[in-house]
From TrEMBL:
Subcellular location(s) of the protein: Endoplasmic reticulum; Membrane
Organism of derivation: Sclerurus mexicanus (tawny-throated leaftosser)
Topological category with respect to the lipid bilayer: Multi-pass membrane protein
Single Gene Ontology BP annotation: endoplasmic reticulum unfolded protein response
Entry-linked Pfam families: TMTC_DUF1736, TPR_11, TPR_16
Pathway assignment: Protein modification; protein glycosylation
Entry protein name: dolichyl-phosphate-mannose--protein mannosyltransferase
UniProt xrefs under InterPro entries: O-mannosyl-transferase_TMTC, TMTC_DUF1736, TPR-like_helical_dom_sf, TPR_rpt
SUPFAM superfamilies given in the database record: TPR-like
Length: 758
């Protein structure tokens, strides 16, 4: 009975504390919205966020996934784990001049774990993790928004109180279903933003844990402040934006914990008011905590700088044209226009695109450009919000607006071009964290409208309608991210002036064998961007395959003229010149390609073919040997070595090369076939037969395999089996050279044997 009485008293005290807290201004008072217990609210948010992106779970690897995952050697077991700390996001050495300098080792580590558990490059596991991460982040947002919108209050038992359960649920739902998040969730490379956001939020919640009230009054825990700094460092090791949480924690500390009026503080600083000494900042430990945050942030940035090196990444004007403009006016105007477009994507996320570079957004070069209106609208809204955040007499309003603007602007700063040049115009993925600020401002605006509205239910239905539209938009956009064809085609209507969009559509069509359609899109890419060397190279390749050699040569020559170190274009130009029988020029082009890319096995292979055409057999063998040294699994180079040695009568050497090749590539049926031919000529019939049969098992529809096995049996004297395989070969390819003649010879021999037997 005494125990129950004690519990009841504690419960009453907690309820009393909650009622006392509720007497302060509260967003929920005027909001007509669902009021759910905390665990139910989190369940609803998790379920809805899952429904938005669930249909992306079985999508392919698309767009940047190829470079960051499939072609990234850091994911494979043979790469030492320690290398992840010295490589960029794409697997290149940070010290390399070509490095992107995006340092995200923890994100790459999760890709590697995905790869190892899946046993290969199977996208389902990668997508499922992304969906789970977004659901987890959305659930955490319920707690984060309850603090940002309702303040940080604790019960007498040290439990944090949610003073804005309805508003925090609405804000979390807005975040969970925002269509601009699709790139982060449905695109596997977006894992970097998701992991960064996860540790970003955990750092914030950890910082809030430092301010529990105890019997002695308001105090703080140095341990939890340090934990927050460590979590911020982890967020930065997932993506660079993560470091901004330390600044936001400082802003939160000043506004919520210390309840500082920024306008008053600025005025006192300007007038050197002595009352600052009695402001209680030192007593509450604000300066000490900010010192901890700043010291931690500076240490993290220094360590990253030491690992990364001082050299900035190399971007081109097509990646971020405004940053290369000579005029300061043009740069400033266009940066601000980009900010307005990012804001518009948060407000109206209908026009979404996987890439906004390469002419998608033409530069503003004059004040007469009508798009200046967007800048004016952006700054009109921002200045209005900033004035309200600083000058309002309502401390509750000041706090929410300042926190909303802080979470909107501070995480966006690394992508703003203010501190360093970035490699994009607009990137939807970088708005993932700033959307937290948007959700705060939207929810606060909804509460103000609800306060004024007479029919609050109509307003609530309108917001519910926005949520439903966003859910459907997320589902639609997720389906577009399932395959490259859908993703690239969806961008044609959004960014018709983007050369990269046309290039990617063309590349996708070419990969599927639709060369005629691919040519159309490649030509459009080159028209939109006459210096687009990759489009010229790919178009030149297709034209080369279609034997349109002169136009192919023009395009490839122009590509290497624009970019003299473009090794792939030099190699392809060499192939075209070889086909045009301009051998000296072809040889020079190949060596130029190798000069710009030292480890270029395909170029050595093509150089070997050129030397073989010129009967420079030693040079050909050396070139192909170089190709196999650089790429031991280069089947074509091995095959050509075996065939050349076979044709020149060097059977023993051909056999040795063939055996060496099969040790490295044991399941390559073309190598089995070439070695089987050599062994047959060396009268090693049994071993030759075994290799022919193994090759046929791997590729049963190759007419030449059956035809050459028939020749072996013919020589060996096994005429019935020879007849059988000649017939199979002729059935597969009635025009097979030499097979019909050999078959007729065999038939005549069999007829003669039958006559003798008769």
């Amino acid at each position: 009975q005494i125990f129950n009485q004690h519990n009841a008293e504690a419960l009453n005290l907690e309820q009393a504390f909650y009622r006392m807290a509720q007497t302060e201004p509260n967003l929920d008072h005027d909001v007509s919205w669902l009021l759910l217990p905390s665990y139910w609210a989190k369940m609803v948010v998790a379920l809805i966020s899952f429904l938005c992106f669930a249909n992306s779970y079985d999508g392919d690897f698309v767009f940047d996934d190829s470079e960051a995952i499939i072609n990234n050697k850091d994911l494979r077991a043979e790469t030492p784990l320690g290398d992840l700390w010295y490589h960029d996001f794409w697997g290149s050495k940070l010290s390399s001049n070509t490095s992107h300098k995006s340092y995200r080792p923890l994100t790459v580590l999760t890709f590697r774990i995905n790869y190892l558990f899946a046993g290969g490059f199977y996208p389902v596991g990668f997508h499922v993790i992304n969906i789970i991460l977004h659901c987890t982040i959305s659930v955490l947002m319920v707690d984060v928004f309850s603090i940002l919108l309702g303040g940080l209050q604790f019960s007498n038992k040290g439990r944090r109180l949610n003073l804005a359960p309805k508003s925090s649920l609405l804000a979390a739902l807005l975040f969970a279903v925002h269509p601009v998040h699709t790139e982060c969730v449905a695109g596997i490379v977006g894992r970097a933003d998701l992991l960064c956001a996860l540790f970003f939020l955990l750092s914030f919640l950890g910082y809030c844990k430092a301010f529990r009230e105890n019997k002695e009054g308001h105090t703080f825990s140095v341990f939890w402040v340090l934990v927050s700094v460590i979590l911020g460092a982890i967020a930065m090791l997932c993506k660079e934006q993560g470091i901004t949480i330390l600044g936001l924690n400082a802003v939160f500390d000043a506004l919520v914990i210390n309840k500082i009026n920024l306008l008053e503080l600025i005025q006192k600083l300007l007038h050197k008011d002595k009352s600052l000494e009695n402001a209680g900042l030192l007593k509450k430990g604000l300066l000490f905590r900010i010192t901890l945050l700043m010291s931690g942030g500076a240490s993290i940035l220094y360590i990253r700088w030491r690992i990364m090196g001082t050299g900035p990444p190399a971007f081109t004007d097509v990646d971020n044209p405004a940053s290369f403009a000579d005029s300061l006016f043009v740069r400033v105007i266009n940066y601000n226009y980009y900010y307005s477009l990012n804001a518009w994507l948060l407000l109206c996320p209908w026009w979404l695109c996987f890439d906004w570079s390469m002419g998608c957004i033409p530069l503003i070069k004059s004040v007469s450009d009508w798009r200046i209106i967007a800048l004016a609208a952006l700054w009109f809204c921002l200045i209005g919000l900033i004035c309200q955040a600083l000058c309002s007499e309502d401390s509750h309003k000041r706090r929410i607006l300042t926190l909303g603007l802080g979470f909107l602007i501070i995480p966006f700063l690394p992508a703003s071009n203010l501190f360093f040049r970035v490699g994009f115009v607009i990137a939807e993925r970088v708005i993932y964290l700033p959307s937290i600020g948007y959700c705060i401002l939207f929810t606060y605006g909804f509460s103000l409208l609800s306060k004024q509205a007479k029919k609050k239910k109509i307003l609530a239905v309108a917001v519910l309608g926005i949520l439903l539209i966003n859910v459907m938009r997320c589902a639609l956009r997720s389906s577009q991210w399932r395959s490259e064809e859908q993703l690239f085609r969806s961008a044609l209507s959004v960014c018709p002036l983007n050369a990269k969009v046309h290039y990617n559509v063309g590349k996708n069509l070419a990969d599927k064998g639709n060369q005629s359609a691919a040519i159309k899109y490649y030509r459009e890419a080159v028209r939109l961007n006459p210096k687009y060397v990759h489009a010229m190279n790919n178009l030149g390749n297709i034209l080369k395959e279609r034997n349109e050699l002169h136009e192919a040569e023009e395009l490839l020559s122009l590509a290497v003229q624009i970019q003299p170190d473009f090794a792939a274009a030099w190699m392809n130009l060499g192939i075209v010149q070889n086909s045009l029988r301009r051998f000296e020029e072809a040889e020079q082009s190949y060596w130029t390609a190798i000069k710009h890319r030292k480890k270029y096995p395909d170029c050595y292979y093509n150089l070997g073919r050129l030397y073989a055409d010129l009967n420079r057999h030693i040079d050909a063998l050396n070139a192909w040997r170089n190709a196999t040294v650089l790429k031991p699994e280069h089947s074509l180079a091995w095959n050509n070595m075996i065939i050349l040695l076979d044709n020149t009568g060097n059977l023993a050497q051909a056999e040795a090369v063939g055996r060496e090749a099969l040790e490295l590539i044991p399941n390559d049926h073309s190598l089995m076939f070439s070695l089987a031919n050599v062994l047959g000529k060396s009268q090693k019939y049994k071993e030759s037969e075994a290799l022919f049969l193994k090759a046929i098992k791997a590729n049963p529809n190759a007419a030449s395999y059956h035809g050459n096995l028939a020749v072996l049996y013919h020589r060996w004297g096994n005429l019935d089996l020879a007849k059988k395989h000649y017939e199979v070969s002729l059935k597969l390819d009635p025009m097979a050279p030499g097979t019909k003649e050999n078959y007729n010879l065999l038939r005549r021999k069999l007829e003669q044997l039958q006559k003798k037997g008769g």
